[in-house]
Design goal:
Number of domains: 4
Distance between the termini: 77 Å
Helix content: 25-40%
Structural class: alpha+beta
Strand content: 35-45%
Strand order of the largest sheet: 2-11-14-13-12-15
Shape: elongated
CATH class of the largest domain: Mainly Beta
Order of helices and strands: HEEEEEEHHHHEEEEEEEEEEEEEEE
Length: 370
C-alpha cells in the first residue's frame, strides 16, 4: 500500500512538471504571436502637380443698383392702383408716387397761357415784317396744348427776327414756364430702373415734405459681395477672376461670381483691402452672408496633405520597405484643413492617416488608399 502511494506521488509530481512546461510554452507562443502583429499604415502615392491656391472670405450682399428716394417738392400723396409698399416691383419709368398740388398746377397753366398769348400777339407783326418766320411761329401756336409739355421754340433764321422775339419777352417767359414744368414733374416720382421696394416711409394721404426720405429701391438681379483681403496677397487678386460663392449653411448650393473691383486703399486698423464680387442670381437676397473661395495663385510641383499628418512642424511619415521614415517637407500654403507642400518625390508612399504612437523606424503593414 505504501509503495502504491509513493508511485502515485511520483506520477503526480512528474505530471505537474510537464503541465507547467506546457503552460509556459503556450504563453511564449502567445507572446510571440503578439509581437508579430504589425500596425496598419494607410498610405497614398505622392503625385506632384500644379495646385490652385484659394482663400476663403465671408461678406454681406449689397444690391449693385440701389437708390434712396427723396421728395424734391411738397404735396399730398395720391392713391394709385399699385401701392407704394415694401416688396412691390416697378419697371423703369413707371410712376411710384404721385403728389397732388393743384395750386402749383394752376400756376403752371397760367404761365403757359401767358406764353401762348405772347406768341399770338407777335403774329401780325411777323406777317408784315418777317413772312418766312410767320409760318413756323403760326404752326407752333397751332400745336400749342396747355395740357401737354412745352415743345422747343422755333429756331430764328436771322438776327433781326431773334432781336424781335427777344424784345417781346418770349424767351424769358418760355424758360420760366419750362422751369415750372420741370418742378411740377417732380410731383411724379418714377422708378429709375427695374427693381423692388425694400423700404417705404410714406403711404397714400401722407403730406410729403421737401427733402423727406420716401423709401429705398433696389435692383434684385445683381448684387455685390464685399470681402476683406489681406494686404500680402492682394496682388494675386485679378479683376475678372471667377469666384465660387456659397452660403455657409448650404454648402451643396454654390454660385459663380466675378471680381469686379479692388479698393486701392489699405484699412489702417485691419491691414486689409476691400474687394468686390459681382453675383447675378435671382434666388439671392440683399443682406445675406456668403462665403467666397477666391483663387490667388498656382503652385507648381506640389501636393496636398491634411494638417494632422505633419510631424515636428515640417516632417511627414513615408513608408519604405514597410518601415516608417520621417522626411522634411516645405509648407507652401496653409489652408483651413489642408497644407500645400513639396519636397517629396513622385511615387513615394506617405502616411495619409495618423498612426497612434508612430515613430521613426517603426515596422508597419501597408494599406493603400490610392
Amino acid at each position: 500500500m505504501r509503495q502504491i502511494t509513493i508511485v502515485l506521488g511520483i506520477i503526480i509530481f512528474v505530471g505537474s512538471i510537464f503541465g507547467a512546461q506546457e503552460i509556459i510554452s503556450s504563453k511564449k507562443s502567445f507572446k510571440s504571436r503578439e509581437i508579430k502583429a504589425l500596425p496598419f499604415a494607410s498610405v497614398s502615392t505622392v503625385e506632384n502637380r500644379t495646385i490652385s491656391v484659394s482663400i476663403r472670405e465671408q461678406g454681406r450682399l449689397i444690391a449693385k443698383k440701389r437708390t434712396n428716394l427723396y421728395a424734391e417738392v411738397q404735396g399730398i400723396m395720391k392713391v394709385r392702383s399699385k401701392e407704394f409698399k415694401i416688396g412691390v416691383a416697378f419697371k423703369k419709368g413707371e410712376i411710384m408716387i404721385e403728389m397732388a398740388n393743384d395750386a402749383y398746377y394752376a400756376n403752371l397753366q397760367a404761365q403757359k397761357s401767358v406764353l401762348q398769348n405772347l406768341i399770338t400777339s407777335i403774329l401780325p407783326d411777323l406777317r408784315l415784317d418777317y413772312p418766312k418766320a410767320y409760318e413756323k411761329w403760326g404752326k407752333y401756336l397751332d400745336e400749342f396744348e396747355l395740357s401737354q409739355p412745352l415743345k422747343s421754340l422755333p429756331k430764328t433764321s436771322s438776327d433781326q427776327e431773334k432781336f424781335f422775339i427777344t424784345g417781346k419777352n418770349i424767351y424769358t417767359t418760355y424758360y420760366n414756364t419750362i422751369n415750372l414744368e420741370l418742378i411740377y414733374q417732380k410731383h411724379l416720382i418714377r422708378a429709375p430702373f427695374d427693381g423692388i421696394l425694400t423700404s417705404a416711409a410714406v403711404e397714400a394721404g401722407t403730406v410729403i415734405r421737401t427733402g423727406q426720405l420716401l423709401g429705398e429701391f433696389i435692383d434684385p438681379s445683381a448684387y455685390e459681395m464685399q470681402v476683406d483681403i489681406g494686404k500680402n496677397i492682394i496682388s494675386a487678386i485679378s479683376i475678372g477672376a471667377q469666384v465660387q460663392v456659397y452660403a455657409p449653411d448650404q454648402k451643396n448650393q454654390s454660385y459663380t461670381g466675378t471680381v469686379i473691383r479692388v479698393n486701392g486703399k489699405i484699412d489702417q486698423e485691419t491691414q486689409t483691402v476691400k474687394a468686390f464680387i459681382l453675383l447675378k442670381e435671382p434666388s439671392l437676397k440683399e443682406g445675406m452672408y456668403l462665403e467666397a473661395i477666391i483663387p490667388v495663385q498656382k503652385i507648381d510641383h506640389a501636393f496636398e496633405v491634411n494638417r494632422s499628418l505633419v510631424v515636428n512642424q515640417n516632417q511627414l511619415f513615408i513608408v519604405k520597405d514597410s518601415i516608417l521614415t520621417l522626411l522634411p517637407i516645405n509648407i507652401l500654403h496653409k489652408g483651413e484643413k489642408n497644407l500645400v507642400v513639396n519636397g517629396l518625390t513622385d511615387g513615394m508612399l506617405f502616411v495619409d492617416r495618423p498612426i497612434p504612437n508612430a515613430y521613426q523606424g517603426m515596422k508597419v503593414a501597408l494599406q493603400r488608399t490610392k
